[in-house]
Amino acid sequence: MNFQQFIIDPKDAKRILIGAKGKLGPMEFAQGLVAIIAGSLILNLVSLVPGIGPLISLIVGLVLAFAWVCIFSKRFHDAGQSGWMTVAAIIAVVVISIVIGVILTPVFGGVSLTEMNSMQTMSSGIVIKNMVTSVLANAAVGYYMFKLKPALV
Would you call 23 helix, strand, or coil by DSSP? Predict the structure, then answer.
């Protein structure tokens, strides 16, 4: 397997990333997840821009979250399971993110709840921590999904 296999073909992007119906094989799932994680990393950097950065991050983040749910749902369909199993994947990513976040907060610095209200933009330490957390949590759950066996139908 080389790195080039994980890059999504632009002509397949709409089919892979949009819509929860259908099925995705392991490689198409991996291509979609890599595209979403790359978009998320760029979005974290955009959030550093004062003023409009957080608004852009919110809007594009919702689109990426929708694409994330779509690829996970399709991958579960390929394994002969309900697309609603995506809820379990969401819970797994949230739990893994919390654990990683707790571990990384002393390393990258954190913000107390009293300081959160006065923040106008995110600090670079928090953004880096969010990027690392996002990649690790999605990689862990994505690896499980990649290895999921297709249904024998």
Answer: coil
In angstroms, the Cα distances linking 121 to 53, 114, 134, 146 are 8, 15, 19, 36
Angle ∠(6,88,41) on CA atoms, nearest 5: 40
Question: Rounded distance, CA 110 to CA 116, Å?
Answer: 10
> How far is it, in rounded angstroms, from Cα 72 to Cα 8?
16
Question: Considering only 39-43, 53-57, 66-70, 88-92, which range has the smallest mean pLDDT?
Answer: 53-57
pLDDT tens across 95-153, in order?
A: 999 999 999 988 887 655 555 555 555 678 888 999 999 999 999 999 999 999 887 76
- Please state whether 23 falls in left (phi above 0), alpha (psi between -120 and 50) or beta: beta
How far apart are alpha carbons 44 and 1 in whole angstroms?
Answer: 29
Decide if 76 contacts 149 (C-beta within 8 A). no
d(CA 153, CA 151): 6
As a whole number of Å, the end-to-end CA separation of the chain is 27
**pTM for this prediction:** 0.86
- Residue 34 one-letter amino acid: V
Average pLDDT, the chain: 88
